[in-house]
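PROTEIN DESIGN WORKSHEET
SECTION A - STRUCTURE
LENGTH: 360
TOKENS:
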């Protein structure tokens, strides 16, 4: 569905284009593609683990990450459970949202109700004010990160995320959400406005990317860092998850070109890129562009705390970012201009330059 999106392609590239400014049909298309990507990523991980360790291990790791599989929850039900978890998690950490703001639209009640005691765990401020408020004040670390501060920050994020997930799974019990999926998707198609759809898409992008962390953690617990890293590279590089992610933005936006401008237009609405990262786009000309990641959740979580996973995340990007350009055109070259570690709290996470090589 690219009718109105095609009109955007004839306009000058807008690096500051917001999701809620997209045509409604494009936002619906992004939603659909991201929901499907959640299922496809699960299947890709399951196949990779099965091939390496056997289907029994793959099923055990999947059950650890998605306990609702025990009662036969469908892929769509698993997605909506992850979606509701992310909706709750962003009440506690609204900065997780990168392309929308929680207050730009009302979150549909189907995603925010029926949380049992987890609702109190996530948003105690609701007892007083009825709304969770973003944290104010200085960032967790200022000036030079320092290994001690970084370790404390990373440990807090690691423990907090694990407790949050356990609380969610405990509050849900052994049952799938009673949300009427078909009715909700009809509202996506016919009721919700652009700002609501943009917020829902950001939730969906986070839910989709959540899957890799669950698979990685499950394999790491069983077989160690090297095994988990090899499988993540297999999934995202060898089995094409990185290419598929870029294709979501490319197809939804109706991108048909093969230059650097077309690449940035595709990245601009790829859920695994802008859906989890704070990204700035700079188009020098149609053959030259730069992408800056101002913030990265993996870096916030692992810097000075888990050097193994930080290096692995960087290695994935160093391999995956060039592949994204080559997918569009083999003559597009990628060069990292800045990589971690950061020098201080105001430093960027990383910066990437793309150039279209002249034909020889």
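SECTION B - SEQUENCE
RESIDUE ASSIGNMENT:
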């Amino acid at each position: 569905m690219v009718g109105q999106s095609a009109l955007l392609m004839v306009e000058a590239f807008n690096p500051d284009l917001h999701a809620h400014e997209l045509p409604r049909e494009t936002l619906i298309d992004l939603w659909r593609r991201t929901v499907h990507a959640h299922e496809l990523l699960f299947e890709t991980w399951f196949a990779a683990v099965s091939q390496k360790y056997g289907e029994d291990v793959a099923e055990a790791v999947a059950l650890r990450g998605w306990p609702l599989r025990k009662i036969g929850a469908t892929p769509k039900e698993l997605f909506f459970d992850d979606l509701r978890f992310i909706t709750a998690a962003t009440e506690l950490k609204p900065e997780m949202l990168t392309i929308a703001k929680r207050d730009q639209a009302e979150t549909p009640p189907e995603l925010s109700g029926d949380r049992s005691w987890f609702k109190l765990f996530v948003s105690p401020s609701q007892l007083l004010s009825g709304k969770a408020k973003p944290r104010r004040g200085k960032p967790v670390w200022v000036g030079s990160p320092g290994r001690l501060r970084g370790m404390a920050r990373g440990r807090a994020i690691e423990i907090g995320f694990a407790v949050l997930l356990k609380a969610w799974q405990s509050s849900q019990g052994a049952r799938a959400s009673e949300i009427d999926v078909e009715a909700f998707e009809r509202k996506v198609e016919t009721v919700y406005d652009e700002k609501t759809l943009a917020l829902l898409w950001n939730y969906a992008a986070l839910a989709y990317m959540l899957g890799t962390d669950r698979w990685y953690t499950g394999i790491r617990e069983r077989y160690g860092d090297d095994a988990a890293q090899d499988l993540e590279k297999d999934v995202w590089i060898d089995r094409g998850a990185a290419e598929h992610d870029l294709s979501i933005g490319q197809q939804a936006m109706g991108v048909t070109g093969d230059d650097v401008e077309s690449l940035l237009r595709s990245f601009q609405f790829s859920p695994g890129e802008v859906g989890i990262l704070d990204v700035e786009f700079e188009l020098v000309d149609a053959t030259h562009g730069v992408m800056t990641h101002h913030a990265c959740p993996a870096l916030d979580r692992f810097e000075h705390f888990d050097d193994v996973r930080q290096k692995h995340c960087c290695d994935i990007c160093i391999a995956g970012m060039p592949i994204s350009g080559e997918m569009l055109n083999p003559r597009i070259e990628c060069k990292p201009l800045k990589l971690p570690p950061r020098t201080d709290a105001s430093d960027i996470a990383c910066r990437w330059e793309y150039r279209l090589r002249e034909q020889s």
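SECTION C - NOTES
The chain is about 60% helix and 10% strand.
The CA atoms of residues 151 and 305 lie 4 Å apart.
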